[in-house]
Every structure is written in C-alpha cells, then in structure tokens.
Amino acid sequence: MASLTVSAAEKKRFELQQRLKEKQGTNPALSTEEITALTTERLEQLKTEEQRIKEKDKTWDPKAKVFKAAVGDDTTNNAPIKVCKTVNMETEGSLNPAEKAKLAAMVGNAHAQSMKAYSNQEGVTATITDAESNAQTTLVFSSCCDCKYVLEAYTAKIFIQNCENIEITLAPSSKVLTETVEVHRCISTNLSINSRIGTLQIDQSSDCSATFDSVENFGNPSMIRKGREFGKDGRIVWAGCENLNITIGKDKVLCDFETERKADLTVNEERTQFKVSYDSLNVLRSEKVVRLRNGFPSTKREDDEHERREEAALQGLAERMGVTLNRKEDKIGKKCKPTNLARAGVARSSRNAAMRAEIKEASS
C-alpha cells in the first residue's frame, strides 16, 4: 500500500490525546517521530477496513438477500458450505442456489447450528445414523419422491416439505431434541414415530398420516405442574389438510378441512388452524384453534376449562377468607318488573298481616 500523508489536524489530535494520557500517568511522553509513525499506522488500518467493506458489498445480492459466490469457490451440490455464521449446510441430491438460500433461511430461523438436507431424491432407501446427524443437526427432506428414510440418530429438528409418497420412520433409538417435526405441502407422506415427539405441525398437505406407536411417545406422559398431573401433553397442529390420518396407540382421528368447513363456514384454508390433543376425558379430538385476548393459541374447550378452574380456585379462597363474591354480569338474569298479579299478591299479604296484628293487639 502506498504511504499516506499525515495531515496537520491528525497530528495535532494525536498530540492532544498523548498529552492527556501523560497527565493521567497512563502513557509516557512520545516524540514527534513516534507520533507520526503511530498516526500513519492507524490511518493504514482504517484504509484497509474501508477497502474490505467495499469488497464485501460487491458480493451482496439485495434481492435474494444472500452473498454471491466468489469466483473459484466450490459450490457443488455435495460440498458443505457456510450459509451464515452459525449454520453449516450439507446436501444429498440436487439443490440449486435459490433452494439453498430458502432452506438456509428456514433453518436459520430455527437457530440451528448445522443442517443435513435430502433434496430431489427419487426411489432412495436410506438409514440415517450418527455419521450423518447429531444433536446439533437439523434434518430437511425437500422435494423427494418414492423414498424411505429411517432415523436412528439424534437430531435437533425435522423439516419435511414438497415431498410425495415418502415414508419416514423414527426408530426407538432416535431422539429429536426439540421434539418438533414440521410437514409442509406434502402428498402421501407417512410418518412412523417410535420416539417422543411433542409437537407435530402439518400444513397444506393431502393423504398424509402420522402414527405414534404408543401414547407415551406423544409428548411427556407424566408431566406434573403445580401439584397436578398432566398426562399426554403432546399436540398436533394442522391447517388446510385433506384426509390426514392421526393414530396414537389405539386412538385414531381423521382430519379433513372440507369436513370442518361444512360445520363452520368461517374457517379459512390457509389461516385457520386445528389442534389434535387429548381432552380431560382422555378422548383424542381435533378442535379449532382460537386466539385468546393475549394472543395465546388455544381452543374453546381449553379456555372454558381454564376459566372454570380459576373460578373454583377463587371461590374456594373467598370461602376460606369469609368473603362473598359478586356474581358475574353475564350470569345474572335480566331484571323483570312485577306483574299486576304479583302486585295484587303483595297487597293482599300486607292486608292479611295488618289484620293479624290488629287481632293480636285486641286479644291482649
């Protein structure tokens, strides 16, 4: 790099800084030659940093929101590439740069450290072992057809999208650390779940199925909270699905958007969500998701049950404290004016009471 000319202003500013440090006893006094050398070195550092930022801006694609690959970079489909500071992507099958960017954004939002993507595969039967996946890896199955996969290793999370006629089996030896599986826009995709999954989300899919080998693998079977036991706390959230079959142990439920629309005309295929879970009677049900006042997703049955428990607890506290609670306005009936017959009855009772009082007074 060419030598830089030190301006008088820069030299003066550096001298003032050194005088201040000298007064504070943090730095010995420097000569004029030393000040000039240090100032020149600092200006060269600033020049290098500015040049690096300019070169980086040249590779930025504002439309795709990704950095373009530099000339000579290895961008083959099977090569691990650095997507961002925390996500490493490794792919099996063909995957174009646009799809890579989309998958990277999806996995980045899930705060994953690495990703293993199976993309555009056809007629493949594979077993995923510890060599392909670990506790920091997010598995992604994208645009696969007529494939069978068996997971026998640890993984952070599973994404399945745009697949057709595939089978994915979670072996008993496998473990999904977040207990979350997401399925999006798939056809005839079958999940066989033999390890614990707490949340399964299926959107815009048709003729799919999810089979849990036992109730114990549907969420935490023995969660205790606030002194009460909550069993079977898993949930399946779906939206816009057709002919979705859910099997948990011996319990089965069929989820179909067209059937739900016949019962409720307000539902929307893309926005309305439904939740499959067990109720207080251990019955597997599919119910419409509603948003509470604080935005929390729930169902009407769960909201009513929550309010009933809260009122019972409040009533019990009031009885122990000797306090009488007023009834809610929505539970108080409408006040009615007395009819003529009621007025006549009140007048008759008043006259009878007066007559009884007079007779009692005369007899005394």
Give a written overview of the molecule.
The chain has 364 residues and is α/β, with parallel strands linked by helices. It is 30% helix and 28% strand. The protein has six helices and 25 strands. It has helices spanning 8-24, 32-58, 97-109, 257-263, 300-321, 340-363, and strands spanning 60-61, 66-67, 81-82, 88-92, 114-119, 125-128, 137-142, 148-151, 154-155, 157-161, 164-170, 175-176, 180-184, 187-193, 199-203, 209-212, 223-225, 228-230, 235-239, 244-248, 251-255, 274-278, 284-288, 290-291, 297-298. It has a ten-stranded mixed sheet with strand order 3-4-5-7-10-13-15-19-22-23, with helices on one face. A seven-stranded mixed sheet has the order 6-8-11-14-16-20-21. A two-stranded antiparallel sheet has the order 1-2. Helix 1 (8-24) crosses helix 2 (32-58). The longest helix has 27 residues, at 32-58. It starts with 7 loop residues before the first helix and ends with a helix. The model is unreliable at 69-86 (pLDDT under 50).
